[in-house]
Design brief:
Length: 223
């Protein structure tokens, strides 16, 4: 490698390192302050960089926030396992939801900031809808593949994927950010939320669970 190439490589690595530093600072500030209260100055102060350096990597606060959200959704919320005929489908659903709940819990402040951002910025809203649509379509494709093998009952896969995603997102939002059902309702630990959502998902797409067979004879109608 020539001297010029070595210098260029070092500069590229330094630039990449600075961008990572700014993104990490942006995540922390948005989570702490929310979308509206965050300023470029707060991000550069947290990153310990010059104010002007920010604009070498981002157009404005909105652009930085969009990159933060995209990084979390694509990097941490990717739908990679939803069960297949070769797996235990209930376990696969539970593992996927556990990952979602863990990421949501880890970035509680960021989801609050996202709600603010979608109300303040059409670009933030459009980005979130596009990212969310990608996740819903991945779910839908997984459902369709299992329907083709007869593993799932017939239903509209995209509509069901959208409904289940919306239920999960809003359940996590109210659970972690609004503290509902709260102490009076015995909110409990996040694992209880995972178990409840997993049960609802499984019943909605498979119709029944093995435990139901033992409950039929104990129903009020059979008495």
């Amino acid at each position: 490698m020539s001297v010029d190439q070595s210098t260029l490589s070092a500069r590229q690595e330094q630039a990449a390192s600075t961008q990572r530093q700014l993104l990490a600072a942006a995540v922390a500030v948005f989570e702490e302050k929310g979308y509206q209260a965050t300023t470029v100055g707060a991000i550069t102060d947290r990153a310990n960089t010059a104010h002007g350096t920010f604009y070498l990597y981002f157009r404005n606060k909105e652009d930085a926030f969009c990159q933060v959200i995209e990084g979390v959704v694509v990097g941490e919320l990717a739908v990679d396992r939803l069960g297949s005929p070769a797996e235990d489908p209930r376990q696969a659903i539970e593992e996927s939801l556990r990952n979602f709940v863990a990421v949501y819990h880890r970035h509680e402040g960021l989801w609050r900031a996202l709600m603010e951002g979608m109300l303040a910025s059409p670009r933030v809203q459009q980005l979130w809808l596009e990212l969310r649509r990608d996740l819903v379509l991945q779910l839908s494709a997984a459902f369709e593949a299992q329907q083709a093998t007869g593993a799932l009952r017939p239903f509209a896969p995209t509509l069901v994927a959208h409904a289940l995603a919306a239920m999960t997102e809003w359940s996590a939002f109210t659970y972690f950010l609004l503290d509902e059902p709260g102490a009076a309702g015995g909110r409990g630990e996040p694992e209880e939320l995972v178990a409840t959502l997993s049960d609802l998902w499984y019943r909605s797409v498979y119709g029944r669970v093995p435990e139901d067979d033992g409950r039929d004879d104990q129903s009020p109608d059979s008495a």
